[in-house]
Amino acid sequence: MSAIYDELKAILLAKSVRTGEFTLASGAKSDLYIDCRVTALDPVGARLIGQLGWAAVREKIQNDGLNIDAIGGMTMGADPISLAVGMTSAMEHPEEMLQVFNIRKEPKGHGRGKQIEGNFKEGDQVVVVDDVITTGGSTLKAIDAIEAAGGTVKFALVLVDREEGGRQAIEERGIPVVALYSRATLLGE
Ligand SMILES: O=P(O)(O)OC[C@H]1O[C@H](OP(=O)(O)OP(=O)(O)O)[C@H](O)[C@@H]1O
Ligand SMILES: O=C(O)c1cc(=O)[nH]c(=O)[nH]1
């Protein structure tokens, strides 16, 4: 694997992988918690996520002949990852640049009342992002919100797949999952 892959893995292991007693988004208990926010909000971590993530997204776009307008996911785990990948697309291949959006957990109660903020519009073909997938429930909610707003999700970009059924749940919906790391490749299990 690349130096970027190894460097990002080292930051994830040092800053994000935690053991203890945790309650997950699904309500399940776990002795493992991967707090990707700490890595994605580390300036070096963000740069590496941008480079690795954009390379993976660009490869999928090219292999499948896709036309992608934008990238984004459910706040807040997805937010720094989406921006890092979008910024890297603009820096490395400006002619292929992806716009970036964030999805609120609930539509805003005032202002424009939107659930999707930033650079998303009806008709867009998008990549949905999540930092971690466990059950896949959060990514599926993001997909629901994008579809309700008139977008089409072509695939999902995930930083870490915990390999607990999330990939299957998302792929059953017809949306392929591109994961930068799995539980096995991150933890060597
Ligand atoms: O695959 P799942 O079972 O849905 O679990 C993974 C989700 O859980 C966490 O989100 P959380 O709800 O803790 O929100 P946050 O990103 O706002 O912290 C994480 O950021 C993923 O989105
Ligand atoms: O399932 C979750 O809620 C979850 C697991 C994990 O490892 N990291 C995280 O941020 N959320």
From TrEMBL:
PANTHER family: OROTATE PHOSPHORIBOSYLTRANSFERASE, URIDINE 5'-MONOPHOSPHATE SYNTHASE. Homodimer. SUPFAM superfamilies: PRTase-like. Its EC number is 2.4.2.10. Orotate binds at T134, R162. NCBIfam families: pyrE (TIGR00336). GO terms for biological process: 'de novo' UMP biosynthetic process; pyrimidine nucleobase biosynthetic process. It comes from Rubritalea squalenifaciens DSM 18772. InterPro entries: OPRT, Or_phspho_trans_dom, PRTase-like, PRTase_dom. Pfam families: Pribosyltran (PF00156). This is Orotate phosphoribosyltransferase. Keywords: Glycosyltransferase, Magnesium, Pyrimidine biosynthesis, Transferase. Belongs to the purine/pyrimidine phosphoribosyltransferase family. PyrE subfamily. HAMAP family: PyrE. Its cofactor is Mg(2+). It is an enzyme of class 2 (transferase).
